[in-house]
Amino acid sequence: MTETSIPAIDAARLLAGDPAETARTRDAAGGIGFLTVHNTPLDRARVEELIAAYRGFFALPEEEKAKVDMSRTEASRGWGAPRSEQVDPEANPDYKEVFDCGHEWPESGLKVYAPNLWPDRPEGFRAVLEAYYRDACAFSLDLLSALAGAIGEDRAYFRDKFDRPMALLRGNYYPERPDWAGARDFGIGAHTDYGCLTLLATDGVAGLEVNSPSGWLPVSAEPGTFIINFGEMLEFWSDGRIRATEHRVIGSREERISVPLFFNPRHDANVAPVGSGRTIRAADHLQKRYDETYLHLKAG
Ligand SMILES: O=C(O)CCC(=O)C(=O)O
Ligand SMILES: [Fe+2]
């Protein structure tokens, strides 16, 4: 596949089953593995409100963020300090900061459903994130159903695999690229995402690069337009018909906020290739990847 541009898809048309938009989505998912979507149910004001909430949190004094530091827990909930995650083992730990929250189900005993850690400030932070989480999950499920149809599978296939989703909503804060940063330092090192579909909102500042046949390709999106890519579980599931493409952020003189929703299925979903007779339990794959990349979870 030699596709070297990132298709822009009209989400309303795709979800309504428009054949041309469906075919372009299928080609993008199986080719470069990235697309942008506009005309979505989450408008610009909604995303700007969300980004402002994260901006307020990341601007808090370090002592305050440390009260919800995920390194005190065995899970990926709360604040991740700079250099607390190493997505590329060949690179140094990322210099970004993050705030993670997700679906809670403590009775499950699974760390992927751990309780969220909420800061006292900024005011309204929790409510804004929870409402966005809910609506972004619904939109992502619609997108996945359309994608299933696009690759010739049952559109309803995913519906019951995403109740109690292990979906994780993350705020990434990339400060100005530090003076000390060298060739092995990244805002986020090269990686593929772990789950099914990533719905990425950004503040519009450039920085994301996609590994394409012609080299690292920049992609950006204004608030209200989203970048979509696919994770390892969907690549397994679709037996490679949908690609999990590597991407990274080196960082620049301009600070940047991005908000991915990592739309992961329920813990017991089987993400092995459809019809293969094999089993790959979604929670096992996700926990393995968390344990490999979050420094506070790394074995030893
Ligand atoms: O900040 C971005 O644009 C991408 C972030 C990313 O790849 C991630 O959080 O997995
Ligand atoms: Fe990513």
UniProtKB/TrEMBL annotation:
GO molecular function: 2-oxoglutarate oxygenase/decarboxylase (ethylene-forming) activity; metal ion binding
Superkingdom of this protein's organism: Bacteria
Catalyzed reaction equations: L-arginine + 2-oxoglutarate + O2 = guanidine + L-glutamate 5-semialdehyde + succinate + CO2; 2-oxoglutarate + O2 + 2 H(+) = ethene + 3 CO2 + H2O
Keywords: Ethylene biosynthesis, Iron, Metal-binding, Oxidoreductase
EC number(s) from the headed UniProt entry: 1.13.12.19, 1.14.20.7
Residues in Fe2OG dioxygenase domain copies: 161-265
Cofactor: Fe(2+)
Gene Ontology biological-process entries: ethylene biosynthetic process
Pathway the protein takes part in: Alkene biosynthesis; ethylene biosynthesis via 2-oxoglutarate
InterPro entries listed in its UniProt record: DIOX_N, IPNS-like_FE2OG_OXY, IPNS-like_sf, Iron_ascorbate_oxido_reductase, Oxoglu/Fe-dep_dioxygenase_dom
Family (UniProt): Belongs to the iron/ascorbate-dependent oxidoreductase family.
Protein name per Swiss-Prot or TrEMBL: 2-oxoglutarate-dependent ethylene/succinate-forming enzyme
